[in-house]
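<given_protein>
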Amino acid sequence: MPGLDDVADELYTAAPDDFVARRDAAAKDARAAGDRDLAKEIAALRKPTVAAWLVNALLRDVPGLADQLLALGDSLREAERSLDGPGLRDLSKQRRALVTSLVGRARALGRQAGHKVGDAVAQEVDATLTAALADPAVARDVTSGRLTAGREFVGFGGIAAGEPVEPAAPAERTSAGGRGGSRGEGGVDDTGAGAGARPRTRSGSRTGTGSGSGGARSATGRGHLRVVEPPEPEEPRESPAERRRRREREQAVEAARRAHADADEALRRARGTLDEATRARDEQEREVADAEQAAADARREVDDLTAALVDLRHRLAAAQKALTRADDAESRAATALHAREKAVTSAQRDLRQAERAQADAEHAAERAEQALADLDTP
C-alpha cells in the first residue's frame, strides 16, 4: 500500500473532476488494507480549485520552478529592504516575464487536460504566483505541489504587489539631530499610523520603511516614499485648543486601530467560514460521489438481474419445447404400445385358434388310430 505522500502526489496531479472519486477509492483501499489512520488522512485531503490544480501542474511540468520562485522572491525582498531602485526595476521585469510565461503555460496544460482556462482562472493563477514571490509562507504552500486554493497578496507597498520604488533623496538633519517624523500638534504622526508603523498585507507581509542617512522616510502610497520634513520647534506650552485637538487625534488613531483589529477579526471569521464551507462542499462532493457509486452499483445489479431474467426466460422456453417434444414422444409411445397390445391380442387369439386346431387334430389322429386298430382286429 503506498504512503500518504505518494497518494497525495497522484491525487493533486490528476484533474479536479477526478479528485473526489480517486481520493475515496484510495481511502477505501487503505481501509481494506487495514490502515484506518492512512484512510482518514487520505479522506481529509481537500479537492483543489482549477487554478490551484494548474499551479500544482506547473510545479511538476516546469523543471526547477520551485527553486526559481523561491530565489526570485528572496531577491525581490532583499532589493526592497535595501531600496535598490535599479535592481528592483530589473527584478520586477523578471517577475512579470516569469509570471506571464507561467500563466501561458498553465493555459496550455489546461487545454491538454481538456479544461478551458478562462480569464478568471488565469488571473487567479497570476495572483497566486505573484503572492508566492511576495510572501515566503505562500511560496512554501505553492512549491509543495499540493495547493488547494488560489492565493492573493494585497499590500500598501512591496515589490511583489506592484512596481519598483525609487528611494527619495535624504532630508537634512535637524539641529537637534533627531529622526525626522512629520508630527502635528501633540506629537502624533500626521499619517495616522503612528511612528514607525508599517501596514500589513493580506498575507501578513510588511512593507519596508528604510531609514536613509540624514532623516526618516515614511511610506505614503503603493511602493512610493517621501521625505518627511524635520519637526518644527515645539511650543513651550499647549493651549487648551491644542490639547483638545491632540486628544481628538489620539482618539481617532485609537478608533482606527480598533477598527483595524475588528476588520482583522472579521477577516479571520470569514476565512473560518470559508474553510467550513469548503469542508462542507468537499463532504457533499464525497456524499454525491458515494451516491453516484451506489447508483452505479444498483444499475449494475439491475442489469445483472435483467440478464438473469432473460436467461431464465430462454431456459423456460427451451424447457417448454422439450416438454412438448416429450409429450409428442409419449403420445407416439402410447400409440405404439396400443398397436403392440392389439398385436399381442391378435397373436393370443391366433394362438388359441391354433391350440384348438391342434386339439382337433389330436382328436382326429386318435380317432384315426382307433379306426386302424379296429380294422386290424379280426
